[in-house]
Amino acid sequence: MAAQIKIGLDIGLALIKVVVLSTKDTPRRLLSLGQIASPQPGIISDSDLDLESVANAIKNLMTEIKAPEKQVIVALPESKIFTRVIYDLPFLTNEELAQAIKYAAEEFVPMPITQVNLNYQVIFRSKEKGPKSRTVVFVVASPKNMVNKYLKVLSMADLKPIAIETELIASARALVGSNPFSPTTLIVQFGATTTDFAVVSEGLILLTRSISTGAVALTRAIAQAFNFELIQAEEYKKVYGILEDQLEGKLFQVLKPIVDVILSETRRVIQAHETQNPQRAVKRVVLTGGGAKLPGLVVYLANSLGLEVQEADPWEGLSKDPALKNKLVADAPVYSVAVGLALRED
Ligand SMILES: Nc1ncnc2c1ncn2[C@@H]1O[C@H](COP(=O)(O)OP(=O)(O)OP(=O)(O)O)[C@@H](O)[C@H]1O
Ligand SMILES: [Mg+2]
Predict the structure, then answer these.
(1) Is the pLDDT of residue 2 over 70?
(2) Going by C-beta distance under 8 Å and a sequence separation of 6 or more, which residues neighbour residue 271?
(3) If you write DSSP's letter for every residue of 172-203 in order, what string do you get?
(4) Do 72 and 169 sit in the same domain of this protein?
């Protein structure tokens, strides 16, 4: 019998998250979830000892949530892969397309093409050959040594990957889905160490970007400005955030320059997308990742961008036990990637 369970595993640099869904039910039913602090430096390290600690943390987490099986779906971090939508291809056969993608990848992948795995998704393809026919594809190039590292950690954790995809593909599935009528959406994924962006239109990703400013930078800035220990700084961040009317605006002043880095990049991504796709203007921004919970962030971004901004709720489309409600709401944006992975179809 085909497995009736899907397990999404998101190995973040701050938190490792797991979500178990039953695929027997429609909508899919949430069976369990959990998170554990990632050992430092975590999966970014190349040392076997560090990777072993990550594997042990994953093992503990799987035991704690009583994971019903060993097969998992995992995500690669956006900051370590290369993605691009290629617009300017003519009508091509499958073979020609694979070749064309290889050539195109040589332009945007800053390492030898033999050292990456290339995957692609067709976004648009004219039905037949003609002077105006064209092909648009979304290409993902994943460095083989990074994929191998993930496989190694999973094997150390005694798990079997049934699929590997990118974080933003997973988040897009959880937060926008494949509904062709949902408005063009910008996902801003504010993680611990990076912030990733994806423009999603008609269920397809049209643009992605990653910058190395994340929620840890906020904590560091607070610690430095007020001479706090990191634990205390983290607490202040979570309680007061960028609420201008708190602590006489002192925290706001410290955090604003960092949040503004994300704001500027958000504007750049929207502009780059709308130049290429003027008929698909971004209508809303969905904030996800742990940083999305920064008090005051939704309002600050909405006022600055003049767009609808909302905090991600990956649980929305799932059936779940009402007793879990409070637990789910508190951590919603942290689980978007894991939910998206567990929602994968094949
Ligand atoms: N209320 C809050 N306000 C601001 N930041 C928060 C809040 N709650 C959690 N965070 C931050 O969110 C981060 C964890 O989020 P998340 O799980 O999305 O990161 P991650 O996936 O481990 O990181 P990465 O994606 O960079 O590997 C931590 O840095 C934490 O400080
Ligand atoms: Mg993350």
Answers:
(1) no
(2) none
(3) HHHHTTT-TTSPPEEEEEE-SS-EEEEEEETT
(4) yes
Instruction: Look up tokens 């594997």; give the residue.
Output: 55
For 247-264, the pLDDT digits (tens) are 999 999 999 999 999 999
Q: What pTM was estimated for this model as a whole? A: 0.96
Whole-number Å distance between alpha carbons of 8 and 71 = 9
Residue 326, token pair as written in the block: 């409070």
* Alpha-carbon gap, residue 308 to 184, rounded angstroms: 12
Query: Which structural domain range is residue 155 located in?
Result: 5-77+144-179+312-342
Domain assignment of residue 191, yes or no = no
Cα 152 to middle of ligand 2, angstroms: 19
Which of 313, 316, 319 has its CA nearest to residue 332?
A: 313
Q: How many domains does the chain have?
A: 3
Residue 38 DSSP class: P
pLDDT score at 131: 81
Of 93, 121, 142, the one marking the end of a domain is 142
**Residue whose CA lies nearest to ligand 1 atom number 9:** 290
How far apart CA 29 and CA 20 sit, in angstroms, is: 9
Mutation pick for ligand 1 pocket among 293, 329, 331, 341 (CB with most ligand atoms within 8 Å): 293
Mean pLDDT within 260-275: 98
Ligand 2 centre from 270 Cα, in Å?
22
Sign of CA pseudo-dihedral 246, 249, 252, 254: negative
Same domain as 51, residue 175: yes
Strand order in the sheet with 82-89: 82-89, 135-143, 116-125
Number of neighbours of residue 312 by Cβ within 10 angstroms: 24
